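Lecture notes, structural biology module. Today: joint structure prediction for complexes of two components.
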Amino acid sequence: MGVAAIAAGPEAARGSRDADRLGTDARRRRYADVRELIASPRNPTPLVRLNRVAAGVDAYLKLEWMNPFGSIKDRTARYLLEGMRQRGELDGRELVEASSGNTGIALAALAALDGIPLTVTIPSGVPQEKLVLLRMLGATVMATPDDLCPVDNPRDGAIALARAVADSPAHRGRYAMPNQYANPDNVRAHYETTGPEIWEQTEGRVRTFVAGYGTCGTITGVGRFLKERDRGIRVVAVEPQPGHRLPGLKNLQEAKAPGILDRSVIDDVVRVDDGPAYAMALRLFREEGLIVGPSTGAIAHAIAGLESGAAGVVVGISPDSGLKYASFYASLVEQEGALP
Amino acid sequence: MIDFTWDAELDCKGLLCPLPVYRTSQAIARLGAGQVLRVECTDPGSLADFPAFARQRGLALLAAQDQGDRQVFYLRKEAA
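The predicted structure, tokenised, for the full assembly:
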């Protein structure tokens, strides 16, 4: 039985009519459809202050893992699909997308709700949890090493593979590819939602914004929105080192710079090593009670290094939670003693 | 033209790179050491991809044949 059939079953059995249903009442936090939970200025993800790990800096993390499918990519996936639907690109087609996991998971949930088959190409180094979640949501998963295509795409194997699935003559237009790395709807998602939320939630007092290099939709969309409000707001990009183990982030020397990246909105780039990023993730768990993924550790490490006086109110993105990285974190806790 | 015997074959006609090397890496995983896979492609990019792929994965590329409208590769899985 498919996902749609399961969802429709009990409803049909009760024979309920639209008029009998409670419907959405956001004030009561009651929703008729899970998609209404995807963050927007009317329903923003929380900002939470860092009280211990960034001494002297008035810093807040925006907890994007409070989105219904678990990451900031819920916003992106919604905008990508809406744009494709409006342009007629979805008609009768399956979806294929390259993802380090989170976009794939959000797309898989949304595609399942619409009955659209989805194939996700994913770097083989991502945690097992993400692969299982994708399969649970009904996606077809093609895991590939980053260096699958040593000649043309030395570090972007998953992206090249998704492009090949979409464009191969043998598939005769069967697939449509959202292509989050080049699709302006990725930027628009953050320009229209994440950016305005941060401006409103800080009452216009945000002075520094920190996000990672990944697809670059967040840093470009939020950066552009904030710069239009106040040119003096400092936008800081966090970049991992080559060969890093920080899913979702990209080093733009080893990976191609995404087409949607607008460097004109970025003031500084901070390079973060894996070690300090994971160490900061551990501190966020233990000192702030924040169960975050490794990329949040990198972003918070960059925040902790800002000059306290000059930074003003700082907002950093926490793209996803730590729940999907238990297998990565196992080695951290095993250093303190073997797991039982 | 040299003819080889092979143990399995893979049709990658109409598939753009790197799909043929992806499919090939899956097919190779199902072979035993010493067995040969014949792969037929139509993307000229495969002529550059397969030698690099074979080097990277420790496979013996016995032959790469450019037949104009198609490219044929013979790969042998080596003992681990």
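Point to remember: The interface with chain B takes residues 142, 144, 147-153, 157, 160-161, 163-165, 167-171 of chain A (CB under 8 Å).
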